[in-house]
Specification:
Elements (H helix, E strand, L loop, with lengths): L2 E7 L4 H17 L3 E5 L4 H7 L6 E6 L2 E7 L4 H9 L3
Parallel strand pairs: 1-2
Antiparallel strand pairs: 1-3, 3-4
Helix pairs in contact: 1-3
Length: 86
Amino acid sequence: MAVRVICFYQPGCMGCMEQTPINREVEKNLAVKIEELDAVKNPLMISQYGLKVTPTIVILDNDMVKERLEGVVHAEQLEAILKKYL
């Protein structure tokens, strides 16, 4: 099972700035890597994943989207969702 977690953000986005330390906490607690990608610098990925807002966290399992979380996601909720795929 190859799980990949991507958090799309935009510079200056208040929600994105709030999400970053949450992501670091979850990474530490679950020993998982959360990739952070600037949505503005990755326009192809915006259309590929149908992004509408930032932050958006996309959870992929074997390159298939399993979950999409829009807006700020708190650590407890993110950990509970990720545990289903780890």
